[in-house]
Amino acid sequence: MTGREEAFLEYVQAGGQVETTDWMPDEYRSKLIKFIEMHGNSELMGVLPEREWIGRAPTLQRKLALTAKVQDEAGHAQLIYRVVEDLGKPRERCLDDLVSGKAKFHNVFHYPTRTWGDVGVIAWLVDAAAIISQKALLKCSYAPYARIMKKICWEESFHILHGRDVVLTMMLGTEGQRALVQEALDRWWAPLMTFHGNPIPKVDDPMYVWRIKSQGNEEARQQFLDGYVPQIWELGLTVPDPKLRRREDGVWEYAEPDWDELRHVVTGHGPKTEERLALRRLTREQTAWVRDIVLAEAA
Amino acid sequence: MVFEVFRQERKGQAFQHAGSLAAPDERFAEEYAREFYGRRGESQAVWVVPREAIHEIDDFADELERNYHRVDGYSLKEKLRAARERAGTSAS
Amino acid sequence: MSGRAQALLELADDELVLGWRDSEWTGIAPSLEEDVAFSSIAQNEIGHARALYELAARELGTTADELAFDRPPDDYRCSRFVELRLVPEWDQTIVRHYLYEVADGVRIEELRRSGDSEIAGLAAKIDREEVYHRIHAEMWIDRLRGSREAERADAAAERLYPLALGLLDEALRPVFVERVAAKTGWDFSGEATAPRGEHDDGWEPLWQEMTEVRRSEPGAKW
To answer: Tag placement on chain A: N or C end, fewer CB within 10 Å?
Structure first.
């Protein structure tokens, strides 16, 4: 590392903030783009499982709330890709890499949704897991990204409440509805446990070293368990992990997640990966004429 | 074209930079800004500005002592102590 | 059922189904910026439907959700125009959006003059939101028609205009014809329209999808 790069590293590790036009080491810039791009891709892909349920929402309020949630996610993708664009990678190139399978997105969005129970569990728990990471990103050394995280976190807060409301309503409902929630939770638990990534010590995680992330993976997962397992148990729901328990010292113990599955899924082999990328590819092609001709031309 | 959006959260507050968006012209930019930064009634008002209209200045020369027009250029403790003594008004 | 309730349901059903169709673009619109903007329009339409159903529900002794979801498909009074599934054709979507806003504008104006203060009041609120829908629709129509793809707009208008007429009572149609012609030059008023009560082939599958979860546990709260 050059002297200048070392000074930069010290600067960000001491809490220094970086703006778009500041000098930054090539490694920082490329790690940053990769990280932020993956976030944008995840918001864009997260839209697809959820929008399948917009048409099937069982009340007007749920229809509105779910549409608004998916709208927020599209909006988040916009905010995030704009940050990447200002770092030098145009949106269309990000989307090219996404649909070609070259770029990654978070594991949870590779899985199917099967019932309205999934809608509640995703909005409540998947969004909760995400917001823990997103709150930590408020301290990202790259200031333009930290700034958009404020708006993102603010909007996400309604998502979790909506999810919890959907779940609570079902848990107060028929046996059939209660079963839908438990069944969805049973399927989503494993992806939730690997969502924050494998427990690499944060000093070995380049994203932490450069203070792009301000929190280690295991720290995030513990925060999730601490915040949400009590909420799950108090409804009489069970978590499909007999080893899950909170120790005397406050640390949560759990069965070892399947890290191979995580790796397999995020490298493009999830149950729904190909189908969803194909849908993105298709809708992109179908509306290309709008972007290329109508939006691009001067009025 | 990239447009920058500034928003005012409540009347009387300063407009703060809120984000940017891509739009083909001002008409589209206004519609998009309205939805991105106001659909929840979270903004009192919003400014939409083409990015190229914004000029950033981020270097300022301050080489020679200029504390004469700043608060940190005025340390009065000693003079005040001496003046009180002379006037016989210092607290003993 | 009173004439008042019938008229409210007609309007509500149109807004509900159009909002449903428009929400099909959420997440896959031509640009992310447009995705957010168009989704707000879809949500507004559902919101209008909800308010209209609530007015009707008070009169009929039921709830907005029951009116929106629990009637048999043939009881719905939505027009064929709003039932059409237009995703992934953005040109058709925009032309329908424009034509709908003109037609809806005409009938909302009429309702604002209503002697029924509840209806007139709600119409005024709806109209205040629809101002922005009209701005958005016109913005897109202008841009589309000023581009190299302008003929897509004409082709869509030829198909959709006659159906749009079916939204309005005969007495209100001349205003619609005049307004659309003034802005776009389009006038397909000679063509036969689909009378209200005739549903599109896509209506029954849409109703099935719309009510699928709700029907899975009849009477349950969601």
So the answer is: N
Check CB contact under 8 Å for A78 and B20. Answer: no
**Cα–Cα distances in angstroms (integers) from residue C186 to residues A180, C153, C163, C178, C183, in the given order:** 51, 10, 14, 9, 8
Number of domains in chain B: 1
Q: At what angle do helices C173-184 and C90-112 cross, to 10 degrees?
A: 130
DSSP category for residue B2: E
Is residue B19 in some structural domain? yes
The beta strand positions in A16-128, using DSSP E, are: none
The answer to whether the CB atoms of A151 and B24 lie below 8 A apart is no
Give pTM, 2 decimals.
0.93
Query: Average of pLDDT values for A53-79?
Result: 96
pLDDT at A129 over 50: yes
Domains within chain C, CATH numbers bracketed: 3-216 (1.20.1260.10)
pLDDT at C46: 97
- The CATH number corresponding to A3-295 among 3.90.1580.10, 2.60.40.420, 1.20.1260.10, 2.60.40.1930 equals 1.20.1260.10
pLDDT score for B65: 84
C163/C168 Cα distance (integer angstroms): 10
Q: What is the DSSP letter of B13?
A: S
Q: Which ipTM was obtained for this model? A: 0.95
Sheet holding B2-8, edge to edge: B16-22, B2-8, B45-50
What are the angstrom distances between the C-alpha of A103 and each of A30, A240, B82?
13, 31, 72
User: What are the residues whose beta carbons fall under 8 Å from the beta carbon of A156, sequence distance 6 or more?
Assistant: A72, A127, A130, A131, A134
Lowest mean pLDDT among A8-22, A244-258, B65-79: B65-79
**Is the Cβ pair B31, C132 closer than 8 Å?**
yes
CATH code of the domain containing B23: 3.10.20.520
What pLDDT, in 10s, does the model give residues B13-66? Answer: 999 999 999 999 999 999 999 999 999 999 999 999 999 999 999 888 888 888
Mutation site, B17, B20, B26, interface A, largest A CB count within 10 A: B20
Which residue stretches of chain C have pLDDT < 70? none
**Residue among C36, C139, C143 whose CB faces B35 most closely:** C36
| Domain span including residue B25 | 2-53
* pLDDT tens digits, A132-150: 999 999 999 999 999 999 9
Out of B23, B27, B39, whose CB is closest to C33? B23
Collapsed DSSP state (helix, strand, coil) of residue A292: helix
In a domain, B73, yes or no: no
Query: To probe the interface with B, which of C25, C32, C33, C44 has the most B CB atoms within 10 Å?
Result: C33
Give, rounded to a whole angstrom, the gap between the first and last alpha carbons of chain A.
49
